[in-house]
Design a protein that fits this description.
Blueprint lengths: L2 H72 L17 E7 L9 E4 L2 E4 L9 E7 L6 E7 L6 H9 L6 E7 L8 H9 L13 E7 L8 E5 L16 E7 L2
Antiparallel strand pairs: 1-2, 1-9, 2-3, 4-5, 4-6, 6-7, 7-8
């Protein structure tokens, strides 16, 4: 083989190698491009799924909040009764009782959101203003003012003795409750849960909520002693009041 034949042969091998390298490089580039496209597609899909998931979660949360708001606006808000600060729980009655002030301003008794006795209603008077409530249904059995200054003690005692066990008893003083008050009357209130009635004196202000004949101590009771040193009005103590949620039974 002469020199030129060798040169031509080397050129042929060189061209073959170049073609192989070029083909391999093209394949590698195509593969790399395919991988890049795949990665880009995968990333776009992940982001799209994440966005849709967030939108779905936000949509569910917004829908839940909207439903809660609709329920709140649909359900009636329980009303506060007798000017109490809150709403009484089930099986409780709202009650607020205020004594008279001196012999000028009459007492006021509110039960379950309704004013039962007041000066505006013109059904209060000097002495002991009292309301009897059926504890099972909350109905007012009777209400009256017992004239403890000029009334008949026997009639007053009979009225108190007729109160049935379990009845809710609400009492408020006006002017004076002691002139015709006897020890028997005081004992009846002790049996209703009063712890202060034995110490109530002339012109003392006194309010009370208890239960007839049960003997359980009541926390619904206040007294303002008549004392020249502490009287708020000339010759009269300050007005007293109690309020809260009284259990049905």
């Amino acid at each position: 083989m002469d020199f030129w034949d060798k040169v031509m042969l080397q050129r042929c091998f060189s061209d073959i190698h170049k073609a192989k390298y070029k083909s391999l490089l093209t394949a590698l580039l195509n593969f790399a491009a395919a991988v890049v496209v795949l990665l880009i597609t995968w990333e776009i899909s992940i982001k799209s799924f994440d966005i849709q998931g967030k939108r779905s979660i936000l949509g569910i949360n917004n829908e839940a909040k909207q439903i809660q708001a609709e329920i709140k606006t649909t359900l009636p808000t329980p009303a506060r009764k007798c000017n109490l600060y809150g709403v009484c729980p089930p099986q409780h009655f709202a009650v607020h009782v205020r004594s008279g002030a001196a012999n000028i301003v009459g007492p006021k008794i509110c039960f379950d959101g309704k004013i039962i006795m007041s000066q505006v209603l013109n059904n209060v008077g000097p002495g002991l203003n009292i309301v009897i409530i059926n504890s099972e249904n909350g109905d007012v059995e009777k209400s009256a003012y017992l004239n403890m200054k000029a009334g008949n003690p026997e009639d007053i005692l009979a009225y108190l003795q007729a109160i049935k066990p379990g009845m809710i008893v609400i009492a408020a003083s006006f002017d004076d409750v002691t002139t015709k008050m006897t020890s028997e009357m005081r004992e009846i209130f002790v049996g209703m849960g009063s712890t202060l009635i034995q110490s109530v004196k002339y012109r003392d202000n006194w309010v009370f909520v208890g239960r007839g004949g049960m003997g359980n101590r009541s926390s619904f009771e206040k007294q303002a002693p008549h004392d020249a040193k502490t009287n708020l009005y000339e010759g009269w103590p300050m007005m007293v009041e109690v309020g809260g949620c009284f259990p049905r039974s």
